[in-house]
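Holo model, L-tryptophanamide. Inputs:
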Amino acid sequence: MSEQKKVIFSGMQPSGVITLGNYLGALKNWTNLQEEYNCLYCIVDMHAITVRQDPATLRKNARDLLMLYIAAGLDPEKNIIYMQSHVSAHAELAWILNCFTYMGELSRMTQFKDKSNKHSDNINVGLFAYPSLMAADILLYQTDLVPVGVDQKQHLELTRDIAIRFNNAYGETFRVPEPYISKVGAKIMSLQEPTKKMSKSDEDINATLSILDDPDTIVRKFKRAVTDSDAAVRYDELQKPGISNLMTIYSVITGMGMDQIEAEFEGKGYGDFKLKVAEAVTEELRPLQEKFKALSKDKAYIDTIIKKNAETANYLATKTLRKVQKKVGFPPVMR
Ligand code: ATP
Ligand code: LTN
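Output:
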């Protein structure tokens, strides 16, 4: 890693095939950062098991996610793309940070509240401590910027508080990271309940658009997308959340402003607009899907990437972990 460049860290859970929301809110933006920054992109499989996962599916989703990162345009030679569980420093630092994180802070996290409601039969300690593991992910690499969707802002603020608290107690140890949230696309909503965010673990398959959906499925899902009874393509998040969400998607992909979109569809019905959105999404995803297919056939190449990147991440993470262990007073390991 070049010393002068700032460090970027982000991650996604391999809890399903990623959605258009994950792609437009996070992954697509990551690909624009690889020249200017030293970037690490993690597949956070340890976070994923905070809700029950089938082992074979988790294994497949994690590998597919790594290939999707590459297929979306992240160059594995320029970015450190790796599996969280391959770098044990994440778990070790998370434990230490747990001792610097308060129950009250974790109880206030909206993601914890949402997921506890959704999985009321399995409100485990890992789900509660999810944010301190996320803080460990970020702080291990002396990260400057964390590109995420707006739903992760609260976790980022907690990460900053934990870093500052630790630095105040032990002297400068962690760089205090900043969130990096793009203005449009930061929150893509469900196609069926447009006041809720699109989420890859949603049980209603019509609510989400997987980035591996084929063109027919994309058209079908957009046709079924919930809108309102008024027929004007006009941006109004409160009164017209469904159509506004489709406009956001169209805007992020085409680069057109909301005014331009309103002008283009003036006097046309929702049907026309939905087809246009479906077409734009299909074209946007086509190259990614083709690359993903090709990568799926190249097992040896992917294996090499996984191994090489895990080694680099391990090396970097261990440097910070050793520093922290020393600061808190763990006896040195005899070598
Ligand atoms: P899950 O359904 O398993 O909770 P998720 O779909 O919410 O998963 P994550 O893996 O938690 O996705 O998030 C990966 C990245 O995608 C994060 O940066 C997050 O902010 C972003 N993201 C998730 N959902 C959306 C969305 N609907 N719109 C924009 N960005 C999103
Ligand atoms: N919590 C995030 C995923 C995640 C992450 C991270 C994002 C885990 N560790 C570190 C950025 C940086 C999520 O649910 N989207």
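Residues 12-13, 15, 19, 21-22, 25-26, 148-149, 151-152, 186-188, 197-201 surround adenosine-5'-triphosphate (ligand 1) (CB under 6 Å). The mean pLDDT is 95.
Archived with the compound record.
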